[in-house]
Design brief:
Shape: globular
Order of helices and strands: EHEHEHEEH
Structural class: alpha/beta
CATH architecture: 3-Layer(aba) Sandwich
Number of domains: 1
Largest sheet: 5 strands, parallel
Distance between the termini: 28 Å
Low-confidence stretches: none
Strand order of the largest sheet: 2-1-4-3-5
Helix content: 25-40%
Mean pLDDT: 92
Radius of gyration: 14 Å
CATH topology: Alpha/beta knot
Length: 144
């Protein structure tokens, strides 16, 4: 069974956002979703190299990526869990991902076509992953 690993570039500085991230991280950990924070001192290129060196599938969070409904994300999470390898979802540094080179070939998911602050995007991603696991469990958390 594959796990979902969410990667953040740098620690959350806003205390209210940090509490939300901690809350959702604790909720989804027992469901096979792990959160890792990488040093903000890493350049975007070094961060990307570190992510690409991990076994599994890498997906970057980017406003230009594919958009999914909550139900579609739940289906993706189910698919990722059945794979034999981990799926890595990475939120980039505040100034975004490189536009050229092999970074261009990496799959991307968008949370919104609107630009979100880096820390808010982290909260939204974790909430949507929690929602996806609740949809897959059949709970009443997600009201369609």
């Amino acid at each position: 069974m594959g796990r979902i690993v969410v990667h953040f570039h740098g620690k959350t500085k806003d205390k209210s956002m940090a509490k939300l991230i901690q809350n959702y991280s604790e909720r989804i950990l027992p469901r096979g979703v792990k959160v890792e924070t990488h040093s903000e001192k890493l350049s975007v290129d070094d961060y990307l190299k570190q992510l690409q060196s991990r076994p599994g599938t890498l997906i970057l969070l980017d406003e230009g990526g594919n958009q999914y409904s909550s139900e579609q994300l739940a289906d993706l999470c189910k698919k990722w869990a059945l794979q034999g390898e981990d799926t890595h979802l990475a939120i980039g540094p505040f100034d975004g991902w490189p536009k050229g080179g092999n970074a261009q070939e990496i799959a991307r998911i968008s949370l919104s076509i609107m630009t979100l602050p880096h820390e808010l995007a982290s909260v939204v991603l974790l909430e949507q992953l929690y929602r996806a696991t609740e949809i897959n469990r059949g709970s009443g958390y997600h009201k369609a």
